[in-house]
Write a structure and sequence with these properties.
The complex is a heterodimer of chains A (479) and B (216). With 479 residues, chain A is of the alpha/beta class. Chain A is 51% helix and 11% strand. In chain A, a hairpin with a 4-residue loop joins strand 5 and strand 6. The chains are: A alpha/beta (479), B alpha/beta (216).
């Protein structure tokens, strides 16, 4: 089985999970405030660059070149990293990656590792696997710390604790920090600065004593072997610099052909992600450097379903994703349901196209439908992934996998009606009569019979007395 | 099969649609973006100063004659007394007074006991307000500018590149590179920006024009 670990086993399908999430008023308020803030910041800094579209075109093309010649670039990367003093490992799936990392940590004799926020290690469930081997992994990104202390799940790619507000975080720190290390200070307030200070104090002893770190990677350059981690808090620098051993787990799609390609991505990523001209810290390292930083560097190249995605000529563009999360922040569905409803490490629009491809459409058939196809995600994507195109492609696959469901039949009937002006006219007339009979105050509350599934979480406007086509024929056509 | 053989075989099978004669360069990569976003005749150094300050770092501009005093003023303002000193930092720039200069090599516990670090930089980037460190002379090992809570960085005006492409072209990828844009920060709580988490909570930048060379 490929793609193990991407989805949370036992998660309900999206429609059920979304319905639950929508009942949570506090969650909706947290999400709306957060996504509105970041959307505005992103727009402001992206519009500072008048060649934004050219940068996007270039980024998409670089990723396309890398994907179409992925074997060659990975081999080149392996050669460059090895020549610079690193060791490259290949993992076909999550189990293999977990075994490799656990073996590397065990070989050092250490029982603790510090971690930089990493989607790839989330995806493979590395922390749980290490725990089974008696190794404790400490998440050091503030939001990941919040998620770990709360025994919670991340709900956003960039800000995994976006579903929690400051009061909830204060209570969590006060209750849980003590059982992981240094307790929260007495009288901790819910001011973000005070909470960040509590995290600084809590993690400092871990950073200063850690011998092994595990990270992800934002980019790796095939020609030089240079690996990049883009971050804000300095926890990344701590993990990448202070320990003796560094283990980086990287999806195979992260490879870039050349070091100079970073000139495109270092412009696009921070502006799309946190809405800054540049994030506070970007670390680039090439193998090992005598006398500075970890003296042992391991790079684990992870497949885990990526080659299945690569095999799909429409779907492979999703592998260009640089995990900026701009698509989450602009998505009307994400803004209302939050990330947990997607049941995957990768939520939001990119998750709706990536998750089904990584784990198989059968397990995640509802995800490609978790979208209105409004296209805001495509507009926001810095590498121009046509998410609506992939979504409709996957919808067709999901419907085909499901066989002749009621929905498939309904879609087929709808296609026949929409194809025939005569049938459409008749249907609209029937809907006008029937719908207006049901409506109260211009809205239909609960639909009758099996249709109530539609109306339970939304109101349906009453159909107009006459269709636009009828109105047009009467009023405009012969002028 | 090893993991390596499995992954490579899967990739090749997945790319069955790519013609075998296609070379990477056959996949067109348009590069129609600007090499720089600075305007014609724009004062790059002024722009750099403005953009660094946008991150709530303190920026001072001076000439060589004023540099020692500018350093003393920054250290006094911040109350930093015990400072990490990278090898290759020019001695003649160190102000006299009640400061303790701790020369490399410095272990992590020693660095943790200091108030701050003073370094040079290898490049600046005007458009993004970024300083770049490559661990060269006068810059120290990476830990030196990370563990202490205060970083005073001196950037020579001629090292400031207009934009990211120009800066990257000047850098040596075989060295460990750190791009610093303001003090450490987080937006993880309600996307409210807080300056100062694990990296130095205060960043002071002094731009010196003309620049200074590290000590050999």
């Amino acid at each position: 089985m490929t793609g193990r670990g991407v989805v949370w086993l036992g998660s309900p399908p999206f429609p059920k999970a979304a319905r639950e999430a929508l009942k949570d008023g506090r969650l909706r308020a947290n999400l709306k405030r957060a996504t509105t803030t970041i959307r505005d910041k992103r727009l402001a800094v992206a519009s500072e660059l008048d060649d934004w579209e050219a940068l996007r075109e270039s980024a998409a093309a670089i990723k396309r070149r890398a994907a179409r010649h992925l074997d060659r670039y990975l081999l080149q990367l392996e050669e460059s990293v090895t020549a610079a003093g690193g060791t490259v490992h290949w993992a076909a799936d999550a189990d293999e990656a977990n075994r490799i990392v656990t073996g590397l940590v065990s070989a050092t004799g250490e029982r603790e590792v510090v971690k930089v926020k990493s989607m790839a290690t989330q995806e493979i469930g590395l922390n749980e696997h290490l725990a089974e081997a008696g190794i404790t992994a400490y998440e050091t990104d503030l939001a990941e710390l919040i998620v770990q202390l709360g025994d919670d799940r991340p709900s956003h790619i960039l800000v995994p604790a976006i579903h929690k507000n400051r009061g909830e975080i204060r209570d969590l720190f006060a209750a849980e920090m003590g059982s992981w290390g240094r307790p929260a200070p007495e009288g901790l307030t819910d001011e973000p600065a005070a909470l960040a200070e509590a995290a600084r104090l809590h993690l400092r002893e871990k950073f200063l004593s850690a011998k092994v770190a595990v990270s992800g990677a934002n980019f790796a350059c095939a020609d030089t072997g240079t690996v990049a981690v883009v971050e804000s808090e300095g926890n990344g620098r701590m993990c990448l610099t202070l320990p003796d051993t560094l283990i980086t787990v990287m999806g195979i799609e992260k490879v870039l052909p050349a070091f100079t390609d970073l000139e495109v991505f270092l412009q696009l990523l921070p502006r799309s992600s946190t809405g800054e001209r540049m994030n506070p810290y970007t670390s680039l390292w090439t193998g090992t450097t005598p006398g500075d930083g970890p003296q042992a560097f391991h790079l684990v190249l992870l497949d885990n379903g990526r080659t299945d995605t690569l095999a799909d000529e429409v779907g492979r563009q999703a592998l260009a994703c640089i995990r900026c999360s701009a698509c989450l922040n602009v998505c009307p569905v994400y803004e209302r349901t939050g990330g947990h409803a997607y049941g995957s490490v990768y939520p939001g629009p990119i998750g709706a196209v990536l998750t089904p491809q990584l784990v198989g459409i059968e397990q995640t058939a509802s995800l490609p439908f978790a979208s209105t196809l409004c296209g805001a995600c495509y507009d926001a994507c810095p590498v121009k992934i046509n998410i609506p195109e992939v979504l409709t492609h996957l919808r067709a696959e999901a419907v085909a996998a499901k066989g002749r469901s009621a929905e498939a039949l309904a879609m087929k009937a709808a296609a026949a009606v929409l194809d025939s002006p005569r049938l459409l006219g008749a249907a609209q007339k029937a809907a006008a009569l029937g719908g207006r009979a049901l409506a109260r105050g211009g809205h239909i509350g609960r639909l009758p019979g099996p249709l109530h599934g539609w109306s339970d979480s939304r109101d349906t406007p009453a159909p107009a007395a006459e269709s636009f086509r009828t109105w047009w024929r009467k009023n405009r056509e012969n002028r | 099969m090893t993991g390596r053989e499995t992954v490579l075989a899967r990739i090749r099978a997945a790319l069955a649609d790519v013609p075998s004669e296609e070379r990477p360069d056959d996949v067109p990569v348009p590069r129609d973006y600007h090499r720089s976003h600075t305007g014609p005749g724009q004062d790059t150094v002024a722009l750099f100063a403005e953009r660094v300050a946008d991150y709530r770092a303190t920026v001072t501009r001076t000439d060589r004659a004023g540099l020692r005093d500018a350093i003393a003023a920054a250290l006094t303002r911040h109350g930093a007394r015990r400072l990490a000193l990278p090898s290759g930092f020019p001695d003649e720039l160190l102000p006299s007074g009640g400061w303790e200069w701790h020369a490399e090599p410095l272990g992590v516990p020693a660095l943790d006991g200091l108030d701050g670090a003073i370094t040079l930089a290898c490049a600046g980037i005007a458009i993004t307000g970024t300083i770049v460190l490559d661990t060269g002379p006068g810059q120290g090992r990476r830990a030196l500018t990370l563990v202490p809570d205060y970083h005073l960085c001196i950037v020579g005006a001629e090292l400031i590149a207009d934009d990211i492409p120009e800066a990257l072209a000047r850098l040596d990828p075989t060295r460990p590179l750190t791009f610093v844009s303001g003090p450490s920060a987080t937006s993880d709580i309600e996307l409210d920006r807080v300056e100062g988490v694990h990296g130095p909570r205060t960043l002071d930048v002094i731009i010196v024009d003309p620049g200074i060379s590290p000590q050999s």
